[in-house]
Amino acid sequence: MKKWVKLSFSLLIVSILIFSLGACSKKESLKKVRVAEVTRSVFYTPQYVALEKGFFKDEGLDVELKTTAGGDKTMTTLLSNGADVALVGSETSIYVYAQGAEDPVINFAQLTRTDGTFLVSREKIDNFSWDQLKGSTFLGQRKGGMPQMVGEFVIKENGIDPHKDLNLIQNIDFANVANAFASGTGDYVQLFEPTASVFEKEGKGHIIASFGEESGSVPYTDYMAKESYIKDNSETLEKFVRAVYKAAKWIEENDSKEVAKVVQPFFENIDLDILATSIERYQKQGSFGTDLILNEEGWNRLQDIMEEAGELPKRVDYKTLVNTSIAEKALNNK
Prior knowledge:
Blueprint: H1 2-29, E1 31-37, H2 45-52, H3 55-58, E2 61-67, H4 71-79, E3 85-89, H5 91-98, E4 105-112, E5 117-121, E6 137-139, H6 146-157, E7 167-169, H7 177-182, E8 188-192, H8 195-202, E9 206-210, H9 211-215, E10 221-226, H10 227-232, H11 234-252, H12 256-263, H13 272-284, H14 296-308, H15 318-321, H16 325-332
Parallel strand pairs: 1-2, 1-3, 6-7, 6-8
Antiparallel strand pairs: 3-10, 4-10, 5-8, 5-9
Helix pairs in contact: 2-11, 8-13, 11-16, 12-13
C-alpha cells in the first residue's frame, strides 16, 4: 500500500513538472514585441481588444505595452531602443526624418483614420456654432502634435484665426491638459475619450463638437518602427498587424457595450457605460478602420495639415516613410 502511495505521488509530481515545463516552453516560444503608446485612450480600442482577446498570442506574440505620455516621449523611447514599436501620430516620423536620422522611423500600419478629440465647453451650449469660440480662452494641445494641428485646421475651416481670434493656450504638457481645464483654465478644451465623457458625466464640461467629424479622414495614429527593426522583423510585424486587424473586425461586428466589457481592464477607473458611450462615438465617426494601410492620399493630406499649421519641416515622399507591404501581406493572409 505504501509503495502504491509513493508511486502515485511520484507520478503526480512528474505530471506537474511536465505540465509546468510545457507551459514555460510555450510562453518562451512567444516572440516579445515592446509597444509604446502615446497615451491610454479609448481611441486605441482595437489594440486593447487584440491584447485582451488573445489575438496577439494566437499569432505567437507576447506584446508588452507601456504608455509614454506625449509624442516626443514616445518617439524618444523608440529611438533609444526602449520599445520596438510606437503607436503615435504620423507627424513624428517626419520630424525625426527632418533631423537627419540615420535609422528613420517608418509607418507600417494605420490604426486610426480620424482625429480622436472632441470640443468640450465649460458651460452647456445647446446650439453651438464655431463663431462662438471668438474671444474665448481655448485650451489646446501641444504645439506640433496632431491634435493641435488638426484642431487649428478645423477652427480655420470655420472662419476663425486661432492665433488672433482666440486666447490660445498651448504650453501645457499633453498629460496635464485635462487637469488644467478641470482646475478652471480655459472656456473650451480639446480632449480625447474617455476623458471627454467623464467630464460631461461629472459636470466639468460638455461635449459640443467632434474634431474627427469636422476634419474628415486623416492618418492620425500609426504603428511605426525603426527601419532596421522592420528589416529584421518583418514577419513578426506581419503577425502583429494581423492580430490588430482581427481586433478591428471583431469591433466592427459587436456593439459598443460588448466591446466596452472587453477593454475595461485597461480603464479600471472608468464606468462601463462611459466606456460604451466613448467607443460608440468613435464607431459612428469611423475612427476604427479595418483597412490598416496608410495610403498616399492620406499621407499627402497629413502634410497639408502640417504645412497649414506651420509645422512641416519639409515635404517627404510617401514611399520614404511609409511601408505598406507588411499590412498588405497581413491582410492577404488573414
